[in-house]
Amino acid sequence: MAFQDMIREIHGSVPKIPIRLCQTLINRAWADIRRQNLWSFLLFDANWTSPAAIATGTVTTTQGSNTVTVSTAAAAAINAAATYPTPVTQRQFRMGVGTIYNVWGWDTVSTLTLDRPMQESSVTNGGYLLYQIYYPVPMQDFLVFFSVRDMVSNIPLRGNKTRAMLDETDPQRLTYYLPTDYVPYTQDNNPASPTYGWLMEELWGSPLSQLTYQLYGCRRGTPLANPTDILPFAVGEDCVLALSRKYAYEWAEANKGDNPRNSGPDFRFLIGEAKGDYDRLFREYRRDDRERADSWFQIHHLGLFGKGWGYYNTLAGVANPGAIQ
């Protein structure tokens, strides 16, 4: 059943209910159903790729300014890698052990624009590092990661650290080369970024070379928008419509006329019946999808990685025996 057909059915269930409200109630019910369960159709498989760090040439900075003037050699190196694997406007700028700044703009000639004024002393023709440690999540409706794996170095990244723990371990962020953890950062606040407003994660220790990470996780899902949109295979429209009718009957009960003779049906009983239908249908669809979704979640749960299992990285010559916790 298409979105437009679901709207017509709810519109015909309650006298005088606005048709735009029917759209809202259907999407409210659809969002509630997505939130109440881990559904197989919300699982995703995606990638991050870290760009190789750029340190060619020199830069000139002024304390209190958010612009950085780069040398000709630095400009050439930046332009050569400005778009792949990530745009320059998603990368970070740093000098020595100073503050890590987000790059918000690059004019392709000589000027980087940072997200805030430089706090360090002014420098002329100094060294720098342009790299990426903050990564946007794979999609705007992202919910949670189950697994983040370094496919090149054979390392499963842990996701159980907080920023406070990371700050205690490495407050200066001087651990480089092969990340072992991903930690929540903030949202992408750069208006020029293609992922503006999306959540971001920090990779620790900071990658300096091009590495590929495979991501498994769960998304929140999106509302129905187009008249021809249909629901995923795992949830039937009867379940969404049952919960939508409950919301529609609640609206009708709240908007009865002052004269009981003109109030029509007793929507209180209809609310209960719709809720009962929804509870039964939800259990049935949840049962049918449980094996696919729950098995996937158990196999890829982040708690299995980086704790009990050891690993050996043949590229880096690094071994970890693991530790049962």
Describe the structure.
The protein has 325 residues and is of the alpha+beta class. The chain folds into two domains: 3-41 and 224-300, no CATH class; 44-220 and 311-320, no CATH class. The protein has six helices and 18 strands. The chain has a seven-stranded antiparallel sheet with strand order 7-2-3-6-5-4-8. It has a four-stranded antiparallel sheet with strand order 1-16-10-11, covered by helices on one side. A three-stranded antiparallel sheet has the order 9-14-13, with no helix packed on it. Strand 4 and strand 5 form a beta hairpin. The radius of gyration is 26 Å and the shape is elongated.
Distance between the termini: 49 Å
User: How many beta-strand segments?
Assistant: 18
Low-pLDDT sequence parts: 299-307
Average pLDDT:
89
